[in-house]
Amino acid sequence: MALETTIIESKLTERFGAEVMNFRMERDIFTLEATPAAIKEVIRFMKEDETLRFNFLTDLCGVHYPDNDKSAQFAVVYLLHNWIDNVRVRVKTFQNGDKPEVDTLVEVFAAANWMERETYDFYGVIFKGHPNLKRILNDEGMVSFPMRKDHPLEDAGRTDKDDRFFGRTPNNYEPTK
User: Is the pLDDT of residue 165 over 70?
Assistant: First the structure.
């Protein structure tokens, strides 16, 4: 018997109730949301349940939604794959914009280690309980997180370029007439 999205939804709602929500198809991938408090146990259940068997963490990444209300400005997105039934699922959890943090999944999937470090490095999401949460690609001295939408696109301190050559004037980068 193939693993249907209705089976996934019913097993998760039966086990976690209101902690899982917004089940839908999103760009041909079954997608759901879980609260930050429950995300680790939801994913552990999805891996260990003998029917669901999502035994592979394909990817983990962050997303910044600066226009959302403060309680949902950051998301951590987990892509899981059930190799046996060849089913993929996307699980999202949203965090507060002031202090985005969620439990680490390193105990559940060892591959989450570097993925969580990269998400921390670029978005500033804290993975509580991570064994080595430090920058992985950017300089340790950085104080900002470059994938956040409020990160400046250009270095204001650069002296090696002249905005006139880029069709911009120094005042607010408006084109000259």
Answer: no
